[in-house]
């Protein structure tokens, strides 16, 4: 079965290294939480809001060992008034046996506001 895995994060400024670093953190979390191998991934789409253009965030994926052959494409997000600024969004299309409700969508930094319904409650230590 092919499933989509969503993720998003934000950056604090339009800076090449910050864009790459934040995207890498997001991608690694998506990969870890969903137990992915490069061979499982059909394609990756990465969009950015129009206020960040210092780098192609796909470079973050290209830096991960074994991921150099995964098709990836960057694009601009629709500039909807009032939408979340300085945001990088990821859509991975993966082959998996996981049920749709088992897929772990990852939202970091200010992007947690995009899908509060998917946020896991914090664990409390007693």
Automatic annotation (TrEMBL):
Enzyme Commission number, as recorded: 5.4.99.5
Claim: Coiled coil is one of the keywords in the record: no
MF (Gene Ontology): chorismate mutase activity
Keywords per UniProt: Amino-acid biosynthesis, Aromatic amino acid biosynthesis, Isomerase
Gene3D superfamilies, A to Z: RutC-like (3.30.1330.40)
Enzyme class: isomerase
InterPro entries, A to Z: Chorismate_mutase_AroH (IPR008243), RutC-like_sf (IPR035959)
Record's catalysed reaction(s): chorismate = prephenate
Record Pfam families: CM_1
NCBIfam families: CM_mono_aroH
Protein name: chorismate mutase
Gene assigned in the entry: aroH
